[in-house]
Amino acid sequence: MALNFVKVGKRIGEIRKRRGLSQTALAESIEKSPTYISYIEGGLKCMSLDTFVAVANALRVSADELLMDSLENTVKVSNHEFASLLTDCSEYETRVLLDLAVAAKKALRENQQLFIQRRR
Question: What residues contact residue 57 under an 8 Å CB cut-off, 6+ apart?
Fold first, then answer.
């Protein structure tokens, strides 16, 4: 599978926004221009490995989080993201999210045949 720079760029943009950073702030932290960050996030520019590592460090994420959409084994990344989602939740919020996840998993498994039938 080839690296999809559009997906990587989109992921960088999503994480940057979640962190409350502007393109300018990210650009300054990695010593690039805001235009360059815009090109990366739009998938218009391919960044060097050095720049990729700088972006990951600036966003405080692992490389696999940025590459998640291009990797085949993303279980560890998904688990990390799910755990991060819960870090600032109250006990009540954590319980509700767990109940929702259990219900969603059950519904997915019960209705899996519908998905398979539609794909045919």
Answer: none
More confident residue, 50 or 114: 50
**pLDDT at 55 (0 to 100):** 97
Read off the DSSP letter of residue 14.
H
Residue 59 CA to residue 55 CA, distance in Å, equals 6
For residues 52 and 88, what is the distance between their CA atoms, to the nearest angstrom? 28
Put simply, whether the predicted model's pTM sits higher than 0.70 gets the answer no
Buried b (16+ CB within 10 A) or exposed e, 97-112: eeeeeeeeeeeeeeee
Report residue 47 as tokens.
């960044």
For the chain, how big is the Rg over CA atoms in Å?
18
Q: For helices 91-110 and 75-86, give the axis angle rounded to 10 degrees.
A: 140
Whole-angstrom distance, CA of residue 98 vs CA of residue 86: 10
> In the numeric block, which tokens belong to residue 40?
């990366």
